[in-house]
Amino acid sequence: MTGMAGTTEAATPVGADWQGWQASWDRQQEWYMPDREERFQAMLDAVEALVGPEPRVLDLACGTGSISARLLRRLPGARTTGVDLDPALLTIARGTFADDPRAEFVTADLAKPDWTARLPHAMYDAVLTSTALHWLFSDQLAALYGQVAGVVREGGVFVNADHMPDPATPGINEAVRNWNKVRQDREQAEGVLDWADWWRVVAADPVLGGPAAERFAIFGDPNDPNEGHADGDVQPPAWHAETLRAAGFAEARTIWASARDAAVLALR
Predict the structure, then answer these.
(1) Ranges for the Methyltransferase domain (predicted)?
(2) Which superfamily does CATH assign the domain made up of 18-167+230-267 to?
């Protein structure tokens, strides 16, 4: 897999250049989260430590399969199921892993209560998700945590790495936001694509244009100020740990944190 942290900006991919699209997605995401690879490493460390080197993993809200790619490279004996609703991102994921029998992908809406019925396996050793569930409101996320608990085997794990700001540190939070804005402005001036610009490129692509149109019909066009994939409400790590325990997990705690984000691990 190309396009990991620290790589230079790649040329704009065209058509079925799945590795190119993966690199492009990674760079766009790194513009928002320069510590993205750190959270992935913490997640995979937890998986290997708690469920071993050959886990069956559910990549929740998988997007292009970023977690699956890193999982399978680190743990070749693993198996992964990616689930998402986005037609364009799933097209990239399926294209990328077309020749890899260890990875499979399912279309499902996590906001609907029957999404688990679409999964090919009843239970998983681990469920992993990163920067994907913040668009749910707290009551929806609490309900989802209960559903996730139902597909994690006893002794298995769930890790959610996402935006989890600490409201008790407003001064630190503001300083980090200001610093991050300066960094983003600098990188954008150097040609890095933000969310809306990346989707504009995808929509113009001869292969991905159709799936992108389907995606916009579901979530709205990121370049339309009156549309878009609206965020829910974010909560601090302690809320996630407490909610996961209430959902049926035996233990839950933070295993990684930056100034803005955190990864919370729950043991079933």
Answers:
(1) 57-156
(2) Vaccinia Virus protein VP39 (3.40.50.150)
pLDDT tens digit sequence for 191-213? 999 999 999 999 999 999 999 99
The model's pTM is 0.92
Nearest-5° Cα angle at 145, 167 to 228: 65
**What tokens appear for 90 in the block?**
């799933």
Q: Indicate left, alpha or beta for 153 from its phi (over 0: left) and psi (-120 to 50: alpha).
A: beta
